[in-house]
Known about the structure:
Layout: H1 7-20, H2 27-34, H3 38-50, E1 54-59, E2 62-67, H4 69-88
Antiparallel strand pairs: 1-2
Helix pairs in contact: 1-2, 1-4
Amino acid sequence: xxxxxxxxxxxxxxxxxxxxxxxxxxxxxxxxxxxxxxxxxxxxxxxxxxxxxxxxxxxxxxxxxxxxxxxxxxxxxxxxxxxxxxxxxxxxxxxxxxxx
Length: 100
């Protein structure tokens, strides 16, 4: 049984994927990396841009996304909070790549 991801978890996952591509993240790459279809991803990208966590840049015939300093700050706070909440519930697994 797969657990439904919360909106903040989805946003953090998207930001992590975008950060991995260092300013060259395209929609398809983000879709694969985040494990969600493009039609579900696009509204979340728009929300992250509106919140100042992502920046979109049009290059030739494609749009690339990059994480902003505020997006990096969001991820730092997100992972700290995730660590605190998991310490309250030790039976839960940590996400892959979680450094603490």
